[in-house]
Amino acid sequence: MNKTSRRGVRLASALVTAGLVLCAVPAVAVADDDNGVLSLTDTQAKDLSERLQLDPAANTAQKTDPQHASPDADDTAGAGTATGAPDSGATDPGTTASGADALAAPKVTASGYTEGVTGMAATVPVAGSDGDYFTVHARGNLTRRTADGKQVWTRDNNSLYKEWDLPALSPRYSKEPYPAQITMGFNAVNPFAPTSDNGYDTGDLTGDGVPDLVFTADVGTYPYRPFVHGDSTLHTGTFVTVLDGASGKTLWTKLYAGAYQVALVDKTLVVADTPYYNTSASTSSTSTLTGIRFDYADGKLTTADSWTYDTGQFKGAAWSTLTPLGGGLVAASWNKRKTTATDTTAGHTLVFDVADGSVKWQSTNSLYSRQLHLDASRGRLVALEMADVNDAVEYEIVSYDLKTGDRTTLDKRTNALAIDLEVGDIRGDSKPEYTVSEDTFDESIFVNANTVRALDGSDASVLWQRTVKRDPDNTLDGATAWNLSAVDGKIVASYKDDKGLDYAENRGASRFARLAVLKGDNGAVNWEKRGVVASQAWAQPFRQGKEWRLRTVDTDQNIRVYNLDGGKQQSILPVQSQLWSAVLMDVNGDGTKDIVAGGQSSGVFAYDGAAMLAGKAKLLWQATVPGQVHKIVKADVDGDGTDEFVVAADTATTVISAQGKVKTQIDGGGQFVWTVTTGDLNGDGKDEIVVPTDKLRAYDGRGKQQWAYTAPADNVAFAEASIADGQVYAQYGSRDAFDVNSGKPTGALAVKGSNGTAVWVDSAPKPEGAAGLIGAQMRAATFASSKFPYADGHAVAVSWLVRNEKNNLGGVTEIRDGRTGKVLKTTEGAGPWQSGNWFTGPDGVYSVSTGTVKLYGADGQYYKASATGEIHTGGLVTGPNGVSYLAGAGQTGFDLMDPAQAKTGWLYRIAYGNMLGSREFVSGDLDGDGVDEIVSLNFDDTGMDRVAELQDGGYSVPYTAIRQMTVFTLS
Fold first, then answer.
1. How does this protein sit in the membrane (predicted)?
2. For the chain, which domains are there?
């Protein structure tokens, strides 16, 4: 299935409460009749509808009743820019530093960028090719790749919006559009939700022998951003677009009110339009089905002729599904919302001739149509139909005679909702069986089990069934098999896995999949994989030689290929998604620094710096690591004078050469590897690698462990470490930091870099001004620098998470003598999990946290300044004429400020670069002209949540935006 859930949120507050709970729903009574048949109230149906659906676009809310929806304030506010041309500028001098010495505002210009893929993805074979395939990502990215994964062409949001040309309706709305949402997904409860099995299709419309790709994408609806499009009266809608399969260029595109189903049938594009979904559609419009035939010339498709079938209905009418039948026929269904329990005109099933739109037959009944499948061997159209949940929670599998439309009920299930139906041969008798995935519920109407049931295609008798029960630790919705595929006598089931849904790694069941291959004759499990191993909804079977394979895109945007028999992974291809950690270094020898970055997928990507400055994204190489990339640092680990890249890669630490070759893999032993620190610990001219997890460990560049330090307490997590004076400084905190019954072991320490023996350990710190000590700040916890004006240049900062005298969460930073551990100075620290980074400059040592810059001045004074804009991380950058600026980055881009204002209490924006969905950055002189460039990056939201969870906390800042890495120049 291919459908879309479409709710998004702008910037939300960080959830920093201990023991973070993201959803807590009270039990509700199940409404039932005298026969024990479940039925739902409107409130119950709405609640279940919002939960029991795929969320391909990774949104945090769901629109289920479009005509009653209104935009949230957060969805309509905000400033941005046209995609691909990030906004930048200077602030009125009156709002910056006063006086004649105020810094001049540089011109900030966006040059090159690379957009990351986001959202769930499916792959589609390119028929007639040598194994090529398309990838379709729910958030507006489409790519053609060769069988070995090489990119042939790609289209992203930037390129699509440039052609669609959709300025915001008014300055009230964001200039920058949100990601286009390609229709994918399924809502198991509500047949009137804007979802569909038919959001994309392939077929040759140009006559060149290469299948073209058609898709429909929702634009402007959620988050709400109404637009202007030519003389159209629509301010939100769906764009149906045809891409040339050979080149990826747009052949044809058109705005519809609510086209959520498309199909290519015998060179006819069939579009089902449901205006009811669109709040800007005229109430005089109606739900229609249109067939379009094209002429092709000069690289474009133009309409040659068309036909339209009109339902005559607007409110409460919605198309459901399209299924090609062969011979120029297509089956289609639409639903009309029931107004009475005895209404027999809810579901409408029709067969059309696409040549002229004539109806071969049609059938109407009291059930809603959800899916249609062809069983040519039996001359049937097999349908999945459901009752209105206000009447009963039940579904039927029915057949329609292909010639006459006569309807026969094959199977009826009560107190269950159907998720997917697959019609395919799984017993080798050349006639298909009917396999269905269904969910059942507990007394609080949460999914307590999913069952895959295989039925005999002749009499619908049950052949076998496989039930997956809800995880024992889960009291909410359990696992659901969202997609079934029949191939080579087997059923491939793609599940959304509920294991650990209360934990950050799979928060809300957002990351883990469960891919199972079941034997077709008895339903036994051939093999199964769980975790970040597959899509939660799609796995594409394909032949490679004589063998069957499965291709699937996991939730971290890695394309994986498995053997159908046995499940051995054949390959993994990380796709560039969000990038949130990067370093600058010349890797191709052209004298220009390049950008080496990583993030959501298991890939490290090197981009040509010179090309980026010229406005183009040129990939030099990519390397595969074991998991998400949480941090990249440069270090010369072999002493040859050239830095390598050391990567904290979720489950391991990886060393990569400047040429992109993986040199060393250091397994994390089951621990979460989220940060690394490097430095020469023993004076041998080679940098060692320090990895803080459950212990503090040091490795050489070949991955050999040099030493391991164990905290004088159990069940702890080590925070980010720092290196100076031949010592490693670190902190640790309890993994039960917020458990009132735990001992909450917390400490700070210094160990010898050469052997890991303790120099000093404070296992019972008592930060000044804290009513209670909770734990250690994890990110940017320690920082050692000779620039601190304390301890004769041997000072180190350590950062604590505390409760203040009002019992509120807060932070404390201590400056200690690195030689003895003695506390020299105590200052206010960052809020819970809000610590950004440390850096040095001529004026001293800076610490940046959410909204705040602190300076430990070279003059011995301590300063604190609040930024007028949103910042989370910072650094000094060199602008034109050698002028130094303080850059602060947040979710909407970055501000340039006067470093001198760090001593005045307020930091005002001098200039800015807007890029929604950013937060991290790296800066440096890419081209050697003496002026720094700023590389805007995204934010490791899942990683930060997992880091907070190491001490029993949680962190969430949902944000809907197109995700890209962008290079900004200063002039």
1. Single-pass membrane protein
2. 1-82+116-317+329-337 (2.40.128.630), 87-115+836-971 (no CATH), 711-832 (2.115.10.20)
